[in-house]
Amino acid sequence: MKADKVYPEVDMKLKRGLLVLAGLLALGMAFAQVTRISLATGGTGGVYYPLGGGIAQIWTDYVPGVEASAEVTGASVENVRLVASGEAQAALGTSGVVVQAYKGEGKFKGKPQPILAIGAMYPNAWQFVTVAETGIKAVPDIKGKRVSTGAPGSGTAVMTQAILKTLGYVPGKDFKEFRLSFAEQVSALKDGTIDVGSWSVGLGPGSLVDLSTTRQMVLICMTPEEQAKVSAENPYYKPFTIPAGTYKGVDYDCLTVGTPNVLFVNANEDTELVYQLTKALFEHVDELGQIHPAGKTISPEYVLKATLIPLHPGAIKYYEEIGLTVPDHLKPAK
User: The pTM is what?
Assistant: First the structure.
């Protein structure tokens, strides 16, 4: 009788112990299966960082086993290098930089980078900015002035330098060049350290909203002839108009040029993972529009129209799954 009382008790303890062990093993397996994704973005004063934060949150929330985070970086050029080296698993970049990287041109001359696109996300507009006190109203007025062309390694710097070179303005000769981040440009414009700042960014970044609400901000616009010249010599840049009212006190349409931004990954990234990331992004893209206005333009249809390098096979799998036809020029060479 005594044994009858003892053995069930021992058996119950054994079962509980096994259940605890099984739970710990399952927990350990769950941790072991977590895929951590670093999404390289840009500075905190632009669009890449807040939008990238939204993309990372969608991936974390809706792709099982994925933990994604948005990282502050020097933007496009640095982002290519981070993805190519495996230090980041995904990144945002301007088309001009991304195409040059893919083809081995420009800053990547002779060294094509192993990158493929998830897709073009939204258009960047080149926004050349001053404040009313400088008296600068047109691009030629920058002669003899202090101009920031953007942070080193950023898409803004690449775009601004290309545009000014095309229009015949040479740093050191025609203007004094500074290389500042978006946040630094706002501070420098406010305290008069520089006369002009450059932004290659989606409309409405926090840094420009800040400037327009604290100073009489002026957008320096192109003429139609300047637009045409820049577009003719730089195929990644197309005429673009910043609508009146985009910023407080700027009540006029402003002619400039724009280029698509691209979300890209390493060409060797796992196909199933990229498929899951692409699927989650577009199934929950409405959430991005609530984070930033740039998110409202993101769609699979825009991807197929605006992407300028081949898509990753995982992204192609998703677009074809929803019934879209991926053109041959967006399919990577086998």
Answer: 0.78
